[in-house]
Amino acid sequence: MAFLAVFALSACGQEEPSGENVCQVYYVSSSETKVESHPYEMTAQSPEDRLNELLDCLCAIPEKLEYKAPLAMGFQVLEVKQEGSMLMLDVDQAYLDLPVITEILVRAAIVRTLTQLPEVSYVGITVEGNQLYDSMGRPVGWMNAEQFIDNDGNEINTYELARIRLYFASEDGASLICTTREQYYSTSMQLERFVLEELIAGPDSRTEGLYPSVNPNTKIVNVTTKDGICYVNLDETFLTVINNVPTEESVYAIVNSLVELSNINKVQILVNGEVPDTFSASVFERNLDIVTTPEK
Fold first, then answer.
1. Residue numbers in the chain where pLDDT is lower than 70
2. Which pLDDT score, from 0 to 100, does residue 18 have?
3. Is beta strand 22-29 parallel, antiparallel or unpaired with respect to 35-41?
4. For the chain, which terminus, N or C, has the lower number of CB atoms within 10 Å?
5. Domain spans of the chain?
6. 3 state DSSP class of 258
7. Is residue 278 packed enough to be buried (19+ CB in 10 Å), middle (13-18) or exposed (0-12)?
């Protein structure tokens, strides 16, 4: 499927709709510091028409000046192509003139809006047919909603690209394997908490040889850092062993991942506010003795 995205003359969804056909359309704030969502009731029925309708919303210049349409910010959409669940937007060269933060917010708004369609899992952006690169010179590639971590249901604040190192379990659960992950996260979120959430979420299903090192049902009670020590408070689910990964190994998966951050030297892990009797120490330092390299 290939078609041209057409700029609409008026904003979509001026009232507060409700119903099963309502989705969230994401716009960039007028200050270009965050993305905010507005409910919109779709009228189209077919997958192609629904996609066109959302694209029109993203192009439509809002009547209210509090926010801006992400596809009406000085550049043009040249073509939209979909293959399976992968949707590619090709834009003109003017897209590269967007300020760094604004460009991230535009991407966040586009991806968060379009991936609500069941037929769209990933969105990509090219510039006149060429690969898009971020401010660090890295290829952007395919994006899904989970790459843009938000701190509440209505607003997405400024994003930064985090390059973190996470420690997951080997297949037999006897050792840890380090892997690097790049992800955008909201600057309103503690980087320490972001690392924990990514670790608990587990390895990417497309990466072979890595297995969860922390029970995925673990809940984070709170995280604080002071004087180089990160205090992590988890619920009791953390102590439930998964995939034959010993609790002590889960502890070091957290410790090693957090100590990779420049402001952390040691980690104390609490369960419901207390240090479990089964722990070998109250404060842990990095342990690379249980880290191995994946087999090729």
1. 1-19, 64-65, 136, 149-159, 188, 206, 294-296
2. 55
3. antiparallel
4. C
5. 2-156, 166-292
6. helix
7. exposed
